[in-house]
Write a structure and sequence with these properties.
Histone, subunit A; alpha/beta; Rossmann fold
Length: 343
């Protein structure tokens, strides 16, 4: 398949009158200058999925989701998963690949995403990575070393018992003592990542942060990374509105269905942001409006941590997404087009 700069740019821009004769005169094949992979990353609620779909339409791409929650079946509303209509429009990978009670690790993501890239390229399409789980993006694009520690089920059960007994903050303090670098990146409430980091340390004798610094060459080739950003007040308003919209769309009913299906509320997936609070609503421990306010607050904090993570990646080219998905996608296409004019 051959992609053309003019065609891709005009596909998105014609509605704004941007497509002109100068653009149409470009005859350089897009495949000649496109990177091996394009990535769209950034904090939650910046419109990554919408931008990704527009880019996929314009570039003939397939999307690899880099979202640690979108992998779970039945968890659709609370994860802001692409709608069935969107998934019919563009081919997505790494969505709905396991049940909420199945473990899913960064190592498994890395393996499945590399296989998806291989298949996408066989079809002559462009791999487009879209998501906000920074660790997944780094594992795929930078190829960092996944610790070789096998799962230690006995240790893991013991650590989970400690979480139930004393809370995840106590384990976080223990992690701080043996691996302060990882502890600074992992939220005290993120029991899954805390336990994994402690497990790696106990099994291998080395901190997980040390393993992650041993980066082999990435297997995906050259990647262009674009990060979506917007003023903090706008982002926080979008987060608040999105949480309310999700609840209106049936998020609480989704949580109730998961519990009725037999999924333990202590599962890592069920303890994730938003789901944990709504589980308490179903159990009668929290009022819905209280839960909504908590989810909004914690999501704002989560977005701040995401932004801190992505700001540390100097390869990311930042794009203002405050004017909407179409304008952000147009900016990305224009930067790709500009690259072709200087190569």
């Amino acid at each position: 398949m051959v992609y053309w700069v003019a065609q891709a740019f005009c596909t998105l821009s014609s509605s704004k009158g941007v497509c002109n004769s100068h653009t149409l005169r470009s005859t350089e094949p897009m495949r000649d200058f496109l990177p091996d992979v394009v990535a769209v990353v950034g904090p939650t609620a910046t419109g990554k999925t919408d931008v990704g779909i527009l880019l996929a339409d314009a570039l003939g791409a397939e999307i690899i989701s880099a979202d640690c929650m979108a992998v779970y079946r039945g968890m659709d509303i609370g994860t802001a998963k692409p709608t069935p209509e969107q998934q019919r429009r563009v081919r997505f990978h790494l969505i709905d690949v396991c049940n909420p009670d199945e473990p899913f690790s960064v190592a498994r993501f890395q393996q499945m995403a590399l296989e998806a890239i291989r298949q996408i390229r066989q079809r002559g399409a462009l791999p487009l990575v879209v998501g906000g789980t920074g660790l997944y993006v780094k594992a795929l694009l930078d190829g960092f070393h996944i610790p070789p520690a096998a799962a230690n089920e006995a240790l893991r059960r013991q650590l989970w018992q400690e979480v139930k007994r004393s809370g995840s903050a106590a384990l976080h303090a223990r992690l701080q003592a043996v691996d302060p670098q990882s502890a600074s990146r992992i939220h005290p409430n993120d029991a899954v990542r805390i336990i994994r980091a402690l497990e790696v340390f106990h099994v291998t004798g080395r901190p997980i942060s040390e393993w992650q610094r041993r980066q082999p060459p990435p297997e995906v080739g050259k990647a262009r990374r674009f990060g979506l950003t917007m003023p903090r007040e706008l982002l926080y308003r979008r987060i608040n509105e999105r949480v309310e919209r999700m609840v209106a769309q049936g998020w609480l009913e989704e949580v109730r269905r998961l519990l009725e299906a037999g999924y333990d509320p202590n599962l890592p997936a069920m303890r994730s942001l938003g789901y944990a609070e709504l589980v308490q609503v179903v159990q009668g421990k929290l009022q819905l409006q209280e839960a909504v306010a908590l989810i909004q607050r914690e999501t704002r904090r989560f977005a701040k941590r995401q932004l801190t993570w992505f700001r540390a990646d100097k390869q990311i080219e930042w794009v203002d997404a405050s004017q909407g998905a179409e304008e952000a996608a147009r900016q990305i296409l224009e930067r790709l087009r500009s690259e072709s004019e200087h190569t």
